[in-house]
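Q: Given only this backbone (150 positions), what sequence would you predict?
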């Protein structure tokens, strides 16, 4: 019955500034009304709603102020350079500095590549790619370079 996640929502303090940020990420603006904008992640399959609010500065918790966009593993070879080219700063995550990212998450039995940054309101944004969904053994969190043995 369930086929995937269709939408997620984030609070923003300035809708126009946030629209510019998410357009910079390459998302297509789908709908704007008053203090609300939707962007397609995959047109017809998933989108994100941005709600302009006076109550944006909520304490961060991944359950309410985090979204992860799926990308292809091959794109992670250039993800850091791409983010830098559009003036987006990578943030520290799980003790890994921006210089050490992307990192590999050990979600046994899965391994995912990930990199973290924030939108203009401090909402946590993650780019994530599955690397191996059937790991036989657990492993420690590491850099993507370590994963590939470089």
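A: Predicted residues:
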């Amino acid at each position: 019955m369930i086929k995937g996640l269709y939408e997620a929502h984030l609070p923003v303090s300035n809708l126009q500034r946030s629209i510019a940020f998410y357009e910079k990420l390459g998302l297509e603006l789908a709908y704007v009304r008053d203090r609300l904008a939707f962007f397609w992640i995959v047109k017809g399959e998933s989108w994100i709603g941005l709600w302009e609010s006076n109550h944006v500065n909520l304490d961060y918790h991944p359950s309410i102020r985090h979204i992860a966009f799926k990308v292809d593993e091959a794109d992670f070879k250039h993800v850091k350079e791409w983010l830098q080219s559009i003036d987006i700063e990578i943030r520290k995550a799980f003790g890994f500095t921006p210089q050490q990212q992307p990192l590999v998450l050990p979600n046994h039995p899965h391994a995912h590549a990930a990199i973290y940054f924030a939108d203009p309101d401090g909402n946590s944004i993650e780019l994530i790619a599955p690397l191996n969904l059937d790991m036989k053994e657990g492993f420690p969190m590491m850099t993507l370079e370590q994963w590939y043995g470089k």
